[in-house]
């Protein structure tokens, strides 16, 4: 579904009222019965039905009459609710071009009132086939809170909370500006994903900075779990920024060592292939860390002094709870989400 900002212009107050009613209904229903929407929206003279027709036309709602007559929000509808809320809060004024498409997200440029350009990331966590997630769906079926709105909202909240906490600890991440529903607002990173970079004037330095980040994350109790050339941005001065945090785990995770080694290996592999460099002994000086280096030049996970409390304390303080993390982890298993799942569109 293509996102068309112009639709915002011709959506009325009543349209948003009905959209919000459907969203409220979706807390307890995957498909919200039509009369319930009408009751929640409580527009005069049966106005809800006319509005729903309009929202359906613009694909902000989806109609489903298979069990009973009802509607659900589409991603587009959810996008508009989040964007409208941000615009009302004065976070940004306009939405521009799309700058990134992930399997789990769409990224757009937005502009603030004073002309600054920021980025929004709209999470698309439920964009999976029913079959692929059936076992998880069964597992969660007694939870009224389960649906894709909840999952994408959690992904956004997790990302926002991690970004904020990482920024406060001096990690090079985008500035976390705001978060609503499934939408994270952040600073726009100048530069390109590492995957697009063909040349670097200081390959070794960039490489060491990146490996140093994996180690420093572990020292703070965290593993990125998707640390690769798509989630590392490089600007013209070869400054590194890391992005994309919904799948991060604690160093106390039972597969922590495997995730850590995999993150490290991704970086080694990319630099070997792209820049043709060999690393024997080249990472023995990581950012003042006391990490041991194994015989292949890789930092040893077991040798890192880890502060395991980071995740609990700092993230809980920023609004993301351990329970929510458990919920999202049932869906976002690091490394599985992209490889084994089937995604629509
Ligand atoms: P996904 O979880 O779908 O992989 P990412 O957060 O990795 O989403 O973003 C997808 C792409 O969008 C990135 O590879 C990058 O090109 C672009 N992007 C994401 N965040 C920003 C940002 N703050 N500034 C500039 N580009 C960004
Ligand atoms: Mg990514």
From TrEMBL:
<protein>
    <recommendedName>
        <fullName>Serine/threonine-protein kinase RIO2</fullName>
        <ecNumber>2.7.11.1</ecNumber>
    </recommendedName>
</protein>
<dbReference type="Pfam" id="PF09202">
    <property type="entry name" value="Rio2_N"/>
</dbReference>
<comment type="similarity">
    <text>Belongs to the protein kinase superfamily. RIO-type Ser/Thr kinase family.</text>
</comment>
<dbReference type="GO" id="GO:0046872">
    <property type="term" value="F:metal ion binding"/>
</dbReference>
<keyword id="KW-0067">ATP-binding</keyword>
<keyword id="KW-0808">Transferase</keyword>
<feature type="domain" description="RIO kinase">
    <location>
        <begin position="64"/>
        <end position="284"/>
    </location>
</feature>
<keyword id="KW-0479">Metal-binding</keyword>
<dbReference type="InterPro" id="IPR030484">
    <property type="entry name" value="Rio2"/>
</dbReference>
<dbReference type="InterPro" id="IPR015285">
    <property type="entry name" value="RIO2_wHTH_N"/>
</dbReference>
<dbReference type="InterPro" id="IPR036388">
    <property type="entry name" value="WH-like_DNA-bd_sf"/>
</dbReference>
<dbReference type="GO" id="GO:0005634">
    <property type="term" value="C:nucleus"/>
</dbReference>
<dbReference type="GO" id="GO:0030688">
    <property type="term" value="C:preribosome, small subunit precursor"/>
</dbReference>
<dbReference type="GO" id="GO:0005829">
    <property type="term" value="C:cytosol"/>
</dbReference>
<keyword id="KW-0723">Serine/threonine-protein kinase</keyword>
<dbReference type="GO" id="GO:0030490">
    <property type="term" value="P:maturation of SSU-rRNA"/>
</dbReference>
<dbReference type="InterPro" id="IPR000687">
    <property type="entry name" value="RIO_kinase"/>
</dbReference>
<dbReference type="Pfam" id="PF01163">
    <property type="entry name" value="RIO1"/>
</dbReference>
<dbReference type="InterPro" id="IPR036390">
    <property type="entry name" value="WH_DNA-bd_sf"/>
</dbReference>
<keyword id="KW-0418">Kinase</keyword>
<dbReference type="GO" id="GO:0005524">
    <property type="term" value="F:ATP binding"/>
</dbReference>
<keyword id="KW-0547">Nucleotide-binding</keyword>
<dbReference type="InterPro" id="IPR011009">
    <property type="entry name" value="Kinase-like_dom_sf"/>
</dbReference>
<dbReference type="InterPro" id="IPR018934">
    <property type="entry name" value="RIO_dom"/>
</dbReference>
<keyword id="KW-0460">Magnesium</keyword>
<dbReference type="GO" id="GO:0004674">
    <property type="term" value="F:protein serine/threonine kinase activity"/>
</dbReference>
């Amino acid at each position: 579904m293509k996102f068309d900002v112009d639709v915002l212009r011709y959506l009325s107050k009543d349209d948003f009222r009905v959209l919000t009613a459907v969203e409220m209904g979706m807390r307890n229903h995957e498909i919200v019965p039509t009369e319930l929407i009408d009751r929640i929206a409580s527009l005069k003279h049966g106005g809800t039905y006319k509005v729903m027709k309009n929202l359906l036309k613009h694909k902000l709602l989806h109609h489903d009459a298979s069990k009973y007559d009802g509607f659900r929000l589409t991603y587009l509808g959810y996008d508009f609710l989040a964007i409208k809320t941000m615009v009302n809060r004065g976070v940004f004024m306009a939405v521009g071009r799309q700058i990134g498409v992930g399997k789990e997200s769409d990224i757009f440029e937005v502009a603030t009132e004073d002309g600054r350009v920021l980025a929004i990331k709209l999470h698309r966590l439920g964009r999976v086939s029913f079959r692929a997630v059936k076992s998880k769906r069964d597992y969660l079926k007694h939870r009224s809170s389960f649906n894709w709105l909840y999952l994408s909202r959690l992904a956004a909240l997790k990302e926002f909370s991690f970004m904020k906490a990482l920024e406060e600890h001096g990690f090079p991440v985008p500035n976390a500006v705001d978060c609503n529903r499934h939408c994270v607002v952040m600073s726009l990173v100048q530069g390109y994903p590492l995957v697009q970079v063909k040349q670097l004037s200081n390959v070794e330095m960039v490489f060491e900075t990146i490996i140093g980040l994996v180690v420093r994350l572990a020292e703070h109790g965290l593993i990125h779990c998707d640390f690769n050339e798509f989630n590392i941005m490089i600007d013209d001065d070869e400054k590194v920024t890391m992005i994309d945090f919904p799948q991060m785990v604690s160093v106390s995770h039972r597969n922590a060592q495997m995730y850590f080694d995999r993150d490290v290996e991704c970086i080694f592999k990319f630099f070997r292939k792209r820049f043709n460099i060999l690393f024997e002994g080249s990472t023995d000086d990581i950012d003042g860390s006391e990490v041991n280096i194994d015989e292949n030049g890789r930092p040893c996970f077991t040798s890192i002094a880890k502060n395991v409390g980071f995740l609990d304390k700092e993230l809980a303080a920023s609004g993301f709870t351990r329970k929510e993390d458990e919920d999202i982890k049932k869906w976002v298993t690091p490394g599985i989400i992209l490889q084994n799942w089937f995604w629509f569109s």
